[in-house]
Amino acid sequence: MKNPFIIAGEIPQEYFCDRQEESKLLIRKLTSGENVCLFAPRRIGKSKLIHYCYSQNPLQSDYYCFYIDIYHTSTLREFVYSFGQQVFSTLKGKSDTMLTKFVQTLKSINAQFSYDAQTNMPAFNLSLGDFQRPDYTLEEIFYALEQADKPCVVCFDEFQQIAYYTEKNIEALLRGHIQNLKNTHFIFSGSSRHLLQEMFHSQARPFYNSVSTMKLLPIPLEKYYEFANYWFSKTNKNIPFSIVEHIYTTMESNTFYLQKTMHELFEETSKGETCTLEQVNQIINKIIDENRDIYKHLLSMIPIRQKELLFAIAKDGKAEKIMSSSFIHRHKLISSSAVQTAMKKLLALDIITEQDNVFSISDVLFALYLKEL
Ligand SMILES: Nc1ncnc2c1ncn2[C@@H]1O[C@H](COP(=O)(O)OP(=O)(O)OP(=O)(O)O)[C@@H](O)[C@H]1O
Ligand SMILES: [Mg+2]
Q: N or C: which end of the chain has fewer CB atoms below 10 A?
């Protein structure tokens, strides 16, 4: 039997833990015509949740669902290229008629497609340079989706990325299109909380009040224990609740690190045996070790004032009132203005996270590494 704690690639349904309420809610919002902003800290399970929803009915059966990760994009042209390419490859597996219609609708670029001599189906062999007028092409893609024979769901994952585009009017451009669409509904997801928050909740921004917000919380401990225990028992291995609880607390309920630790623990526990706390601690140290060089390098790139604040936050775990004189004295920092400058930089880099004025290190494992130092 393979390891049931999947840490890379697609997660087959039987290995997908919980998320029953969240997937129902997200599907209900989309099928009732809402656009959704889905946000959560890194590696909680946003992208996997979206893929899971896409595999459920009625999305699976009655909708065309497109998923576009725009993390690597930095211009409108790249955005439209990725969008077009994803729509193309999704339709390719689903409907030849829609695929042909789609290509015909993309008047600004359809001369660039080549056709398979045998099947007479178009192939997506376009390059970025073929997208000479991305704003036109974008309009054509949306138009094609509006004409589709089924409703469409489009997810732009890592949507906060558009804030960094070289063009400045992208939010307004997208908002302009999206508000007129009837057949197409959107998920905007991402992890950079303050960026998404500003985009969707600040009155001055084009997307203000245009979406329903959904915050993805960690998988509850009880659900995760149920899941872990099920797979351990099934292979005649034992895992006490206290062990799962220990991992859950150490990894601050981060889904990826939970899975990563559990994956290793499952490997190391023999049939008929019960895993131990000692094993778990060794595994966690091993995972920190695997990342040590990356973290060392990251630290070396951070200027001294920011680094001082970073250590102070790591020490407190959940740091409150970081501009107060008590925090500054306790951690021997320079001044509140220096803290403020450093804080803004670290937030923008997503190295630290802020929630209700409480600051913490975004990556749990990085926090463990800093504490060790
Ligand atoms: N419901 C789940 N069941 C089992 N494993 C999960 C589940 N959700 C997430 N995971 C695990 O957590 C990892 C991260 O999930 P995912 O990529 O969806 O997170 P994310 O919130 O989109 O992260 P990022 O912010 O980095 O994009 C997955 O690779 C998988 O190992
Ligand atoms: Mg993701």
A: N
Kindly give the number of the ligand 1 atom that is closest to the alpha carbon of 40: 21
| CA 42 to ligand 2 center in whole angstroms | 7
Task: Please check whether the domain covering 19-215 is classified as CATH 3.40.50.300.
Answer: yes
| Helices and strands (H, E) in the chain, number of each type | 16, 10
The alpha carbon of 72 and the centre of ligand 2 are apart by a number of angstroms equal to: 12
pLDDT above 70: residue 1: no
Residue appearing with tokens 């595999």:
55
Cα(6) to ligand 1 centroid in Å equals 9
Q: How many CB atoms lie within 10 A of CB 210?
A: 15
pLDDT surpassing 90 at residue 75:
yes
- Please tell me the distance from the alpha carbon of residue 159 to that of residue 291, in angstroms, as a whole number: 27
pLDDT tens digits for 76-93? 999 999 999 999 999 998
328 Cβ inside 6 Å of ligand 1: no
Q: Ligand 1 within 6 A of 258 CB? A: no
Q: Which of 47, 262, 366 to mutate to test the pocket of ligand 1 (most atoms within 8 A of CB)?
A: 47
Q: Which of 352, 366, 367, 302 minimizes the C-alpha distance to 322? A: 352
Closest CA to 22 of 220, 271, 214: 214
Tell me what the pLDDT averaged over the chain comes to. 94
pLDDT digits (tens, 9 = 90+) for 238-273: 999 999 999 999 999 999 999 999 999 999 999 999
Ligand 1 atom nearest residue 44's Cα: 21
Class of domain 302-372: mainly alpha
Q: Which of 70, 66, 88 lies closest to 78, judged by CA?
A: 70
**Burial call 257-281: b when 16+ CB within 10 Å, e when fewer:** bbbbbbbbbbeebeeeeebeeebbe
Between the CA of 86 and the centroid of ligand 1 the distance, in Å, is 21
| CA dihedral over 47, 64, 210, 103, signed as positive or negative | positive
On the question of pLDDT at 324 being above 70, the answer is yes
pLDDT digits (tens, 9 = 90+) for 236-247: 999 999 999 999
User: Global pTM?
Assistant: 0.93
Which residue CA neighbors atom 31 of ligand 1 most closely? 7
